[in-house]
Amino acid sequence: MCYDDNARPPIPDGSLGNAYGEDLVLTSADGNRFMAYLARPEQTSDRQVLIYPDIRGLHQFYKDLALRFAELGIAALAIDYFGRTAGLTSREESVFEFRPHVQQLQLETFFQDVEASLSYLRQNVGAQGSIFTVGFCLGGSFSLLSGTKPDLGLKGIIAFYAGLSRSFGDGPSVLDQAKNITYPLLGLFGGADAGIPVSDVRKLEEALKLKGIDEKIVVYQGAPHSFFDRRSTDFAEASSDAWKQVQDFISTHS
Prior knowledge:
hydrolase activity; globular; Rossmann fold; AB_hydrolase_fold; Dienelactone hydrolase domain-containing protein; 254 residues; Dienelactn_hydro
């Protein structure tokens, strides 16, 4: 598990504006209804992020994260993965057993949900907005895989501690699919993440360089998986820099 119910995203440095958020239910092309949370800045934004949560789906950490983005002037839509198998039920840690639902995830239907989410952003937030994916853990893997879909019309992909050895069904690993990424990429990893060896991160970096992709990979030495947490005061400097990297990446590629 990436974040528990008490985890909260760090506060970005600098001046923050006002933001407001709302719970949504979106519908995919196959009729699947899934939960989402939209956070809007006070002023109209031409920058947008689609947030892919960790393995637990849409829980409070990602609603708060969406609001932090909106306070920076970036509209944010966080989505859930489990509408097909768990419906619109709570994703609170105490009541939701995520593992059986994760095992049933399929890339084809996941990307149907992504397309519905992107359509919602373009129709309701800004048709000409620059859209980026931002994913964490499982969502980081999904963010990298989104990078292999040029028809999504993204401006870039951002992945926090993406599982690189993960595969879906009988398909190749996320790392093996990196050669198909077409968008600019920002990858943020912990150097002490026991589940994601730095050697795999360097293989990802090399694959992107060989492809000629505009990429930046940052490894925070000594930082564990899920270091991006307001409670992790020992890694506050890494969290602050991660926010800066994300903002700079979005500004550069918008």
